[in-house]
Design brief:
The structure is a single chain. This protein is mainly alpha-helical. The protein is built from eight helices and no strands. Helix 3 runs antiparallel to helix 4 and helix 3 packs across helix 7. The chain is globular. The protein starts with a helix and ends in a 32-residue tail after the last helix.
Amino acid sequence: MYLSAVIGWPLFIATLMAVFICSWLASFALWPEMVKKGAERYGRPWATTGAGLLVTLPGGLAGAALSQANEPLLKIIGIIMLGSIILIGVVGSTGLCLRVGQGLASPADKDRPWRAVLRGGVVMAFVCLFPVIGWIGVLLWMLISGCGVVILPQRLRVPASVSAASRQSPETAPATPPIPAHQTRPPVMAPDEAPQTGS
């Protein structure tokens, strides 16, 4: 019994880590643009977490209540709800893995951008192994904020000052005022094109 627990738990943890990492890679392969926008949204962690709570809190409570029902159909619906929330959270947290991987940038990322997701996913998977804090705090926050990333609007609000500055091109030079006709200078002629006077 003791030997099976010693072998079983590390194998279970390693399998769970592999499932998470492969899910993050699959999300990046299927929805690369959404993952890149998700990495930007993690620059506002409080907003993504708050938006995620609006989905995970009522949905998780409803799913947990239905999964405990005696009716088989309600139990299945509750399990599907809980599974859907976890799946959405994993997909959305791919942006966090990408953001972490970009912080550990490598020259190989230029040709293989998925390596940043892999690198960040491995880091976050090991962070989730941190006793108690990683098991509960980090893992739950990743799933909650991942749901928030998915449901947030596709376009982030940009401050008015930034948007106005972006519309002005720094390379645009002021228009040169036209030269009046009476100040027009005669064209400069090359030495070999100068008019020759008769002797």
